[in-house]
Amino acid sequence: MKRALICGVSGQDGAYLTRLLLQKGYEVFGGSRDATTNTFENLQKLGLKDQIQLVSINICDFRSTLQTIIKVKPDEIYNLSGQSSVGLSFDQPVETFESISIGTLNLLEAIRFSNLPARLYNSGSSECFGESGNLPADENTPFKPRSPYAIAKATAHWQVANYREAYNIYACTGILFNHDSPLRPYRFVTKKIIATACRIYKGSEEKLHLGNIDIQRDWGWAPDYVEAMWLMLQQDMPEDFVIATGVTHSLEYYIQLVFKQLNLDWNKYVDSDPALLRPTDLLVGRANPSKAAEKLGWKATHTLEDAVKDMVTDELSN
């Protein structure tokens, strides 16, 4: 039985990855900064909390990281930790950088110090690419980060690449484009749109306040993406992969899909709020996930339309 340590198990991706690994017969250790006080709401929603071993680990503390890895002796480590909001990173740049870059570095150092044959998956971000124009970004596209979050993710990406080359550690980064699910936190714009629209559908007279709705993104389905994470650690050699659907839509189109699902005219309920504009933002995000298809045999199964339908249905049931 393989052992997996998931750092950041309480998040959206951590919960779905837990489910996938349990289905594959893994012994799963779920890491959180304080496992004694965390409610692990997402794990509870999926009925998984009692099926794994919960451990306290602060990956920004090298001692905590090393002790946990030596104790657990995982075959695979999944680094899903760190501050995950682009918008919040402008308000908390130091915490964002430390939680992502220092945390990743401590995991790499702990693997090196312990001399255990653990394989490391690091969760990267398409935000690192910045504006790539109309050319879909792939694994060879240069990074041009435009937010504190993206800068931190780019730093972690190159740390992984360096340790892979310098110390022969099996470590790789999944450069993930946007991906959603019913477990997405409400601070993310897509979940905010769905939650507000559902409240309006149920009788609320509020308006949906948004920033720039002309931005374009490649949106996927989180359960699809955690399978790509697992596949990356099953290869003979560690490599980085862009994980995305390969299809880009505007935020306005996303809004239209949500309100159409509820038989509402979105134009009546959406207001533009300049206060919600970011200091710097990406206008267009396009992806070329062909390497993942060729080498991992991975392709997204959910379209944006599928994802929106499932998320709206789930929100209405709450």
Per CATH, the superfamily of the largest domain is: NAD(P)-binding Rossmann-like Domain
- Percentage of residues assigned to helices: 40-55%
Which percent band covers the strand fraction? Answer: 15-25%
| Strand order across the largest sheet | 3-2-1-4-5-6-11
Radius of gyration: 19 Å
Shape: globular
- The low-confidence runs, each spanning 5 or more residues with pLDDT under 50, are none
User: Can you identify the CATH class of the largest domain?
Assistant: Alpha Beta
Secondary-structure element series: EHEHEHEHHEHEEHEEEHEEHEHH
Just name the CATH architecture of the largest domain: 3-Layer(aba) Sandwich
Mean pLDDT: 94
Question: End-to-end distance, in Å?
Answer: 37 Å
Topology readout:
Blueprint: E1 3-7, H1 12-23, E2 27-32, H2 41-45, E3 53-56, H3 62-72, E4 76-79, H4 86-91, H5 93-114, E5 119-125, H6 148-167, E6 171-176, E7 179-180, H7 189-201, E8 208-210, E9 216-217, E10 220-221, H8 222-232, E11 241-243, E12 249-250, H9 251-261, E13 270-272, H10 290-296, H11 304-317
Parallel strand pairs: 1-2, 1-4, 2-3, 4-5, 5-6, 6-11, 7-10, 8-13
Antiparallel strand pairs: 9-12
Helix pairs in contact: 1-8, 3-5, 5-6, 7-9, 7-11, 9-11
